[in-house]
Specification:
The protein has 140 residues and is mainly α. It has four helices and no strands. It is elongated.
C-alpha cells in the first residue's frame, strides 16, 4: 500500500467491439448516401464539364468530411466513401447493349481518380478514437 494506483489501460489497448445497432444503421445510411452522391456525380460531371466535375467532387468531399465530423469517428467518413466507390465502379461497366455512363475522356478519368483521392483524403482527415482522462496526459 504505497499509495500508488494501478495504471489504467488505455482505450486504444482495449479489444475492438462490434458497433452498436444505431451506429451500424447510421453507417449503412451513410453508405447508401455515398452511393447516391456517386451516381449523381457520374451523371452531373459530363453535363457541365468543368463546373459539374468540380461540383461532383465537392459534394463527395462535403459528404465524407461532414459525416466523419458528425459521427466523430473514422467510420463516418469511410462509409460514404465506400458507397461512392462501389457505385462508381459499378457504373464503369458497360452493358451488353453497348450502353455506358463514362466516356473515354479526361473528365471521366478526372472524376474517377479525383474522387478516389478525395475519399482517401477525407478518410485520413476524419477524427479517430482518442483516449481521454488523466492517465493519458503527459506529466509536467
Amino acid at each position: 500500500m504505497s499509495g500508488r494506483t494501478e495504471p489504467t489501460t488505455s482505450a486504444l489497448a482495449q479489444p475492438l467491439r462490434a458497433p452498436s445497432l444505431g451506429r451500424a444503421a447510421l453507417c449503412l445510411g451513410l453508405f447508401v448516401l455515398g452511393a447516391v452522391v456517386g451516381v449523381a456525380g457520374a451523371l452531373m460531371q459530363p453535363a457541365w464539364f468543368p463546373g459539374g466535375l468540380l461540383l461532383a467532387l465537392a459534394a463527395e468531399a462535403g459528404l465524407c468530411l461532414g459525416a466523419g465530423r458528425a459521427v466523430g469517428r473514422r467510420s463516418g467518413a469511410v462509409a460514404p466513401a465506400a458507397g461512392w466507390a462501389l457505385a462508381v465502379v459499378l457504373l464503369t461497366t458497360s452493358r451488353p447493349e453497348g450502353d455506358f455512363v463514362f466516356a473515354a475522356g479526361s473528365g471521366s478519368y478526372l472524376f474517377l481518380l479525383g474522387g478516389i483521392a478525395v475519399a482517401v483524403m477525407c478518410a485520413t482527415l476524419a477524427p479517430v478514437r482518442q483516449p481521454d482522462g488523466d492517465a493519458v496526459r503527459l506529466r509536467k
